[in-house]
Design a protein that fits this description.
The termini are close together. The protein has 70 residues and is an alpha+beta fold. It is globular and about 30 Å long. The strands form 2 sheets. It has a 4-stranded antiparallel beta sheet with strand order 1-3-4-5. Strands 2-6 form a two-stranded antiparallel sheet. The protein is built from 2 helices and 6 strands; from the N terminus they run E-E-H-E-E-E-H-E. A hairpin with a 2-residue loop joins strand 4 and strand 5.
């Protein structure tokens, strides 16, 4: 298991765990980051991570990406 920030670009991963406070977990779940969901890192720009999850592209900060374990 590793944080999303270390995931290889273009390779599909599965969300295994989300760490952090309950408020952060709820926010990420609202965006579609739930355990068991497939996720692909599209690109990293200026520390932010662009991912493809549930047929949507979402940009999240490096700090948020560190809380998502794949």
């Amino acid at each position: 298991m590793m944080p999303l920030t270390l995931a290889e670009i273009g390779k599909e991963n599965i969300v295994k765990r989300i760490t952090g406070k309950q408020q952060v977990k709820s926010h990420l779940e609202d965006l579609g980051f739930v355990v068991g969901s497939p996720i692909t890192v599209i690109n990293t720009i200026g520390g932010n991570v662009i991912v493809n999850i549930k047929e949507s592209r979402i940009a999240i900060s490096r700090e948020m990406a560190q809380k998502i374990m794949v």
